[in-house]
Description:
Layout: H1 7-18, H2 25-40, H3 46-61, H4 66-77, H5 80-84, H6 88-93, E1 103-106, H7 110-118, E2 122-125, H8 130-133, H9 137-140, H10 146-154, H11 159-166, H12 174-180, H13 188-201, E3 205-208, H14 239-244, E4 251-252, H15 255-270, H16 277-280, E5 282-293, E6 296-303, E7 313-321, E8 324-334, E9 337-340, H17 353-368, E10 372-375, H18 385-390, H19 392-398, E11 402-403, H20 406-421, H21 429-435, E12 440-443, H22 456-467, H23 476-492, H24 500-515, H25 517-520, H26 525-538, H27 544-551, H28 554-563
Parallel strand pairs: 9-10
Antiparallel strand pairs: 1-3, 2-3, 4-5, 5-6, 6-7, 7-8, 8-9, 10-12, 11-12
Helix pairs in contact: 1-2, 1-3, 2-4, 3-4, 7-12, 22-24, 23-24, 23-26, 24-26, 26-27
Amino acid sequence: xxxxxxxxxxxxxxxxxxxxxxxxxxxxxxxxxxxxxxxxxxxxxxxxxxxxxxxxxxxxxxxxxxxxxxxxxxxxxxxxxxxxxxxxxxxxxxxxxxxxxxxxxxxxxxxxxxxxxxxxxxxxxxxxxxxxxxxxxxxxxxxxxxxxxxxxxxxxxxxxxxxxxxxxxxxxxxxxxxxxxxxxxxxxxxxxxxxxxxxxxxxxxxxxxxxxxxxxxxxxxxxxxxxxxxxxxxxxxxxxxxxxxxxxxxxxxxxxxxxxxxxxxxxxxxxxxxxxxxxxxxxxxxxxxxxxxxxxxxxxxxxxxxxxxxxxxxxxxxxxxxxxxxxxxxxxxxxxxxxxxxxxxxxxxxxxxxxxxxxxxxxxxxxxxxxxxxxxxxxxxxxxxxxxxxxxxxxxxxxxxxxxxxxxxxxxxxxxxxxxxxxxxxxxxxxxxxxxxxxxxxxxxxxxxxxxxxxxxxxxxxxxxxxxxxxxxxxxxxxxxxxxxxxxxxxxxxxxxxxxxxxxxxxxxxxxxxxxxxxxxxxxxxxxxxxxxxxxxxxxxxxxxxxxxxxxxxxxxxxxxxxxxxxx
Length: 568
């Protein structure tokens, strides 16, 4: 309940929620009056505060008028006062919500922990036992001077006390001290060791959000002008035709603009304790903004070069509307196909989720030349009760996705017919679980790469291990470098060392090329040159070129598939 009317305030909140998706002058006036009533109320329950916060976010993302948008944003900017006015038990109940005025305790991965420290957030270690803190000892040993080592090993001082003592004069305390002295990315091996040691320690952090600009309340990319809505958009009768059309206006962001969108994207998932690897470890040279119309935009973030996969191209995305983050996810290309899924933040239910995800797929196809989208069963029900409860299968079905197996396609067709005959019909939990036993596919046509199996990467990894089995562990890098120069000559006819743009691509791809070398020997010269171009693109500043080129090389994927076949 709230004071200042109690039940009337809750009725105002319920009415505000009921007006989601209702637009027009009369609706806008009513929403503004309801918003002001709720904003003046003194709330006493955490669940009501959370619900009001959701309505403010929704209006900020999808406003009827600029006046309403401004009122919602101002209320969000000072939302911490509402949280701080709650009774202590109710305030504590909002822990881990990401709202202004709350605190989040979570074991953040290294990339987010370092981002929190870099951006000046109030964060500290939240150990409850000394032996938990001691899991950081392998990492701390990378920082100890010889003069400190004897004392550290003596047991005279515990790990927690030593960290506090060592970080005493550092602004922000122990977390900025520890993560601020980590490697700066110049040494790949040491950076890998550093982040691995930190993640292995599973160090719990307490993030006190206060009035942070990175809280879910205040995290927005300031954009202009504000786009107001007169309604929500629908996908249409032929979503596949829409997806095939290139999405205009995609731009690669640079400098401070790229950093601004990256920070907003990381904050959107960090405040909700979500993790998407390429979003966290993004390549500042590969951040794209894709306009989705009506003030909506998709921020697509390529993973940092040193974190690239071998055969896939890995991207994160965060969806925005009027600068407010409304959803997130990832898209991973493998040849002409891409694995993805839709994840709308709960605050934005009852909006135009299907249309925005369809536009996102259109952006991915435009960026990467994707001919086939794959959605794994978790997204629509396997081991995901929330997806079962929401009937997520039908969200993808309406966009043109169909089951990969014949049995599931038959079941889906039968269920689709029942829904068409009776609009009140709802699929049973048993039916939805049966539909979630395998992937869903969306075929857009134009691709020449066959459907690549989920375990391809595992099996080609086994083949590479077999290929390199005769090389001593300490000599692998040197041997692979020599093979790279030899393959360069075989593919291009050039006799030279590797260029800077080729070194990373060769480190990743050459072990696979060695596994398929017998097949390469039978290729035409033009195909071999295209193969080496793939190596160059894998190591380029942006990985998008690799994704597009890989989508157009069926011969390469056929060779990889044959090499990865069991028994080879």
